[in-house]
Automatic annotation (TrEMBL):
The lineage of its organism: Bacteria, Pseudomonadati, Thermodesulfobacteriota, Desulfobacteria, Desulfobacterales. Residues 156-176 are annotated as: Disordered. It holds the Pfam family Lcl_C. InterPro entries: Lcl_C. It comes from Desulfotignum phosphitoxidans DSM 13687. This is Lcl C-terminal domain-containing protein. It comes from the Bacteria. Residues 11-128, 182-298 form the Lcl C-terminal domain.
Length: 312
């Protein structure tokens, strides 16, 4: 999208997502623990930072929406208007469902999504929704809250993802069966129902060869199958669940632990981005290794809903 970012004094509006970020990503100069980060956001709201009282710590999908896999240091679109971006980890408000004493953070140097102990210290970047339009980023799925030690607590006033549940609500039902495929009515993507249709892992180049053969064979009557981009894979994650981190009652079968994406790492082009489904980390895999699985997909996806794209 051209002119995605719009400056407005000390903030930047992302017109792609409907989110407002502080222009200075280093406004909080020092790393904080997760609970300190949430407390710092409360202070911003009490003092009315830049005239607003509804700042929050971004959830995992909101911070991921800023990531570009085409650039590094920082891993934000080249046309961004931000200052003070630290090329390291930033907290999100989203807890790891399997290990609730850990929370998700994202590396702003390279876009890696991982989880870490809440007592460790990382950077903080406030965000807020633009009213009345709200956010065009999908919800993470998280509905519960935990303290720094991983004990469940009342979400009220916590400022966590489980309390705010910011973002677009997924359609219900989300998944619609179509023969041996599953249509995600939120993203518009169509996935194979069988998530291990090739019966084992493969190297990265073989994944593309397998998809090319699918298209020659017109599997299920189509010739536009592809290796998913990393955003396609990440869109399947649900942060209220683990093992796998997919929505409750999802219709897929034979879900494996990790999947290749078609997205090459810009840190080292010998690696490609991968999704680990147990908890939902986004990391990288070495392309020549026969270690990751293929989950073919059809259809375009940009990080927004299918209906949003139709409106453009």
């Amino acid at each position: 999208m051209e002119n995605r970012f719009k400056p407005d004094n000390d903030v930047v509006i992302d017109e792609h997502t409907g989110l407002m970020w502080t222009q200075n990503a280093g406004l909080v100069e020092f790393p904080l623990t997760w609970e300190e980060a949430l407390a710092e956001i409360k202070t911003f709201n009490e003092t009315g930072l830049f005239g607003y009282h509804d700042w929050k710590l971004p959830n995992r999908r909101e911070l991921f929406s800023l990531m570009s896999h085409e650039v590094i240091n920082p891993s934000v679109d080249a046309g961004h208007l931000f200052t003070g971006i630290f090329h390291g980890y930033y907290w999100t408000s989203t807890t790891c469902a399997r290990l609730p004493d850990q929370a998700w953070y994202i590396h702003l140097g390279g876009a890696r999504v991982f989880k870490g102990m809440k007592h460790r210290s990382y950077m903080v970047w406030p965000v807020r929704k633009i009213h009345p339009g709200g956010s065009r980023v999908w919800q993470t799925g998280q509905t519960v809250c935990y303290d720094g030690s991983g004990s469940r607590l009342d979400c009220d006033g916590s400022g966590q993802d489980g309390e705010i549940q910011s973002g677009k609500t997924w359609p219900e039902p989300r998944f619609r069966p179509e023969d041996d495929s599953i249509h995600d009515t939120g993203t518009g993507l169509v996935w194979l129902r069988h998530a291990n249709a090739f019966d084992g892992p493969m190297d990265w180049n073989t994944a593309f060869d397998r998809v090319a053969q699918m298209n020659r064979d017109r599997v299920q009557g189509y010739d536009d199958w592809r290796v998913p981009e990393i955003r396609d894979l990440e869109s399947l994650t649900d942060m209220d669940h683990h093992s796998p981190a997919l929505p409750e009652n999802h219709p897929f079968t034979h879900v494996q632990a990790f999947y290749w994406s078609a997205t090459t790492s810009q840190y080292d082009t010998g690696y490609a981005w991968v999704l680990y489904t147990k908890d939902g980390p986004v990391g990288v895999g070495y392309k020549p290794l026969t270690e990751f699985f293929l989950w073919p997909v059809r259809g375009p996806y940009t990080g927004m809903g299918a209906d949003d794209e139709a409106d453009r």
